[in-house]
Design a protein that fits this description.
The structure is a single chain. It contains 4 helices and 9 strands, in the order H-H-H-H-E-E-E-E-E-E-E-E-E. By secondary structure, the chain is an alpha+beta fold. The chain has one domain (about 30-160): Beta Complex (Metal Binding Protein, Guanine Nucleotide Exchange Factor, Chain A). Strands 3-4-8-7-6-5 form a 6-stranded antiparallel β-sheet, with no helix packed on it. Strands 2-1-9 form a 3-stranded antiparallel β-sheet, with no helix packed on it. The longest helix has 14 residues, at about 5-15. The protein is globular and about 40 Å long.
Length: about 160
């Protein structure tokens, strides 16, 4: 049985260690872009993207839940990378996950890549654009059939083009 004193001391030790843990650092996208076919300098990315899109795509940020207009986009069409315009998801794979971010059960072929994200003291699968390496969001295994996956994407990292009638 753990005493209150042991619990408090252990807790304080854990809090004291927080500054030394790397919560959100991942391999820098700037260094990783060498393997992607669409490469821009940091200045070019900043000129091309809004500050919010830059924060997500290039700095692996996350937009606030329920703020993206793409969350409410229900027309037929294609969701593409805001950084390089690579088509990522067909609207037929979009579903309402209730999480506040656009969610899909499958990407288009050869559209995304994935890496392990160990930020926030947990292991998740980060999703990035296969062409430019831009951070899009994460994929989880709690989605609907047929894949059982939930690609939880940042709307600010994508554009939407409706299908032509």
């Amino acid at each position: 049985m753990i005493s209150r004193r042991t619990f408090v001391v252990a807790g304080l030790g854990g809090v004291a260690a927080l500054p030394f843990l790397r919560f959100t650092e991942q391999p820098a996208l700037a260094a990783a872009t060498k393997k992607f076919s669409y490469v821009l300098t940091e200045a070019q990315w900043r000129a091309k993207l809004s500050p919010a899109a830059y924060a997500v795509l290039r700095e692996e940020g996350t937009e606030r839940a329920f703020t993206s207009p793409l969350n409410e986009e229900h027309r037929a069409g294609t969701f593409a990378c805001k950084g390089c315009a690579l088509p990522l998801f067909a609207s037929k794979t979009k579903f309402d996950s209730g999480t506040g971010w656009p969610s899909f059960w499958a990407p288009l072929p050869n559209a995304i890549g994935a890496t392990t994200d160990t930020s926030f003291l947990m292991a998740r699968t980060e999703v990035h654009c296969a062409r430019c390496g831009g951070h899009l969001g994460h994929v989880f295994d709690d989605g609907p059939r047929p894949t059982g996956l939930r690609y939880c994407m940042n709307g600010v990292a994508m554009t939407f083009t409706p299908s032509k009638a």
